[in-house]
Amino acid sequence: MELKHPTSVIDFTDSLEYKGQKYIYWSLNKAEKYFNADFNKVPYSLRILIESQLRAYEKEEISFQSLYQIISNSGDQSEDSVIFYPSRVVVQDYTGVPLLVDLATLREKVKSNGGNPTRVNPVVQTDIVVDHSIQVDYSGTQNALTLNSDREYERNKERYNILKWAETSLENIRIFPPGSGIIHQINLEYLSSLIKINDNKLIPDSVIGTDSHTTMINAMGTLGWGVGGIEAESVMLGYPLKFPLPKVVGVKLTGELGFEVNTTDLVLTLTERLRKNNVVNHFVEFFGPGLNSLSLEERATISNMAPEFGATCAYFPIDEESFNYMKKTGRSESLIELAKLYYKNQGLFYKPENFSPVYTKTIEVCLNDVTTCVSGPNRPQDRIEINNLKRQFSKLLKDKYGIRSIDTHKAKSKETTLRHGSILIAAITSCTNTSNPKVMVAAGLLAKNAVKRGLSIPNYVKTSFSPGSKVVSDYLETASLTPYLDKLGFNITGYGCMTCSGSSGPLDPLLEKEIAENNLIVSSILSGNRNFEGRIHKSIKSNFLASPPLVVAYAISGRIDIDLETEPLGFDNNGKPVYLHEIWPSNKEIQTLIAESISPDLFKYRYENKAYESQRWRDIPKEKGELYAWNRDSTYLRKPTAFFKDINNSHSIELVDGRVLALLGDSVTTDHISPGGEIPIESPAAKYLLEKGVEPKNFNTYGSRRGNHEVMIRGTFGNVRLRNKLLDNQEGGLTKHIPSGEIMSIFDASYIYSNQNVPLIIMAGKEYGSGSSRDWAAKGTSLLGVKMVIAESFERIHRSNLIYMGVLPAKFKDGESWRSLSLDGTEKYQLNFSYDSLLDQEIHIKAYKGNGDIIEFSVIPSIDTAEEQECYRNGGILNQMVKQLLNNQASV
């Protein structure tokens, strides 16, 4: 049925009263009745999007017909996109600093073209949390936190200047300085309010962030997900997100987790299951009786890892647990009551007794079937039960590295010599797990039981503990667990992402030498969310994700090739073997200690009193000004004028005699494309810094230097584990220049190609661009002169980031790949296409081989909406924003 278009805009607002105050909201119930729809069949996450469409319709930003199609679940047929105005933006500093560099440059660009630079100003509340700057330079000592914080300020003072400028010169910017905690845990514990109130109008709290794990907030019932920094900039300036109506996969949870099984085991199981079910670009929504046994913090662990599923978000509908958590974390009673009233009036409160949504597909997971596990050695979805890890590690050594035997000698004393499987890094890290008191208290209790049995950790294991907020250390201290963690070497090293983001710091040079000389396959174990190749440490090739108590257990054993169910962790002072099950804490112990140690007052003290802010941060001078005062000598912050291009008015593009810069396989991550960790001494980025007078000890990381495009372009495709198929069995950021055949860095090759006006192509396999939503993976690709990336499939965020940087993502046709087409990357490529028809055309390509053969094939532009097509035609989002600001079209 198709409704007749009304002659005037329909009013879908309604009102509610709370404590004598009248509030207006956009009513889903009124829309449901008007369109004769049944919202009980609509997933909760889509209902929130429908609420956003009601507001967009009132502003006449979408048509009545488009609104009708979305509400009637026929949005797939709509030519209009869903319009989503997030109420907040959250940003971490690795993306926040380059984002502010872009805004500062955008202001200058607007002013130089006769516009008003102050129109480049956030209109949406934006919180920047400095959580990526700190590294594990020092560990295993009581003063590790102080020493690491000192180094953090020494290295990053230039970066912090632009944060101070933004805090005083831009509106709606709030900075959480170094030492505050991790962005997503702060978002969960403090920033999210479930509702936003503006002039007595109520809307659901919603958020997008410049980190893919922004999805963690879905656990509260707040809809949000990660986008690239360049996409976040447009939202900050008042532009909505526009995208096709997403498909929603329902995950029905039943049963309860068993003894010795925790939420980390569950989320690794879900990651494996959902990856196999291909939920890329989908919303995932959880329901079922299993929800009753999961606390909100446990749900947060699950929501946090939606990017590892491949999903856009992992949503838990709002229920009583959402409001219980708000109360536990010190939110005001009036806010909680008003939010509960709003969500119940809207039909957004989870009612399992009246639950019948229609999902794209439904997956059932029984919590009783979840077993204790880890994931690795380099992908989060590669789950291994702990009783099978020893066997799997031996298989890895044999299959990947050709190593057929391993020293399995068991000693009662500490090992003094490394071998395959030795654990070099053991880190309790990442908001994925440190936001969950159950696993944190479990880790503390296990440490306590281990110390009482006389166990210790081998001295070659670098241990670290980096909580996601100071509340964690507060309650562990209250529970008297800190001394035991310290005794084992898990002293607090800092409040930030640290090892999880690749900032694991240096290893002992003697150990690195031993690893290199003996080609050892050593390991790390961490409670993070990513274990991609080259991410944790360049010398460690096998990395495993695990729960915090398992991190402690494996650290004690000192090796990854152990069966924790049958082999002892070590031996006590009497030479008696100590097994994991003997020191594993019971659920009753954990719950009792949580009840005794955690209160709303801990959260109120840390957040309401700004107890997270240090005097050192307050002492940094504030520089207020319409334009940012660039320091020409800075090696951290450079004005990125190359991002702003002069675009001609042609309607087509022709690529003649193009070359392949890199020929890549499956699962190439944004860590491969734009590494965030240490800058290798032999890299092009290091050469640049040395020429600028920077000593190697002050190189810092790629992530910290994302405000300098000169460093970042040299680091693009610079991961030490990248495998470019143009080369034979070589790793690193190298390529073969065609036609000379000379092997050189990808940066140097791109420079030569650029001087010869040769357009460049990247070719890849499946899941290209998975991983963190770092915009520099797209920015660097663009600056290298790459015009097109052709892959079998793309991860959502990187695909859109490429478009926003003026690089065309295109997919091979189903069943085809560069391998099946017999392409080897040495060919010359020719193609042309129209900017105006990328939504409905294939692009025909001719590849000319050196022997005269021609391979012809077609690819499909991976552009989903008319808005993306227009953005690409404009040469990217930054160019488009300048045009709109100068034409007074932006809503800022």
From TrEMBL:
Metabolic or biological pathway, per its Swiss-Prot or TrEMBL entry: Carbohydrate metabolism; tricarboxylic acid cycle; isocitrate from oxaloacetate: step 2/2
Domain called Aconitase/3-isopropylmalate dehydratase large subunit alpha/beta/alpha: residue spans: 77-558
Enzyme Commission (EC) number: 4.2.1.3
Catalytic activity, as annotated: citrate = D-threo-isocitrate
PROSITE patterns (UniProt xref): ACONITASE_1 (PS00450)
Known role: Catalyzes the isomerization of citrate to isocitrate via cis-aconitate.
Official protein name in the record: Aconitate hydratase
Species, as recorded: Rossellomorea vietnamensis
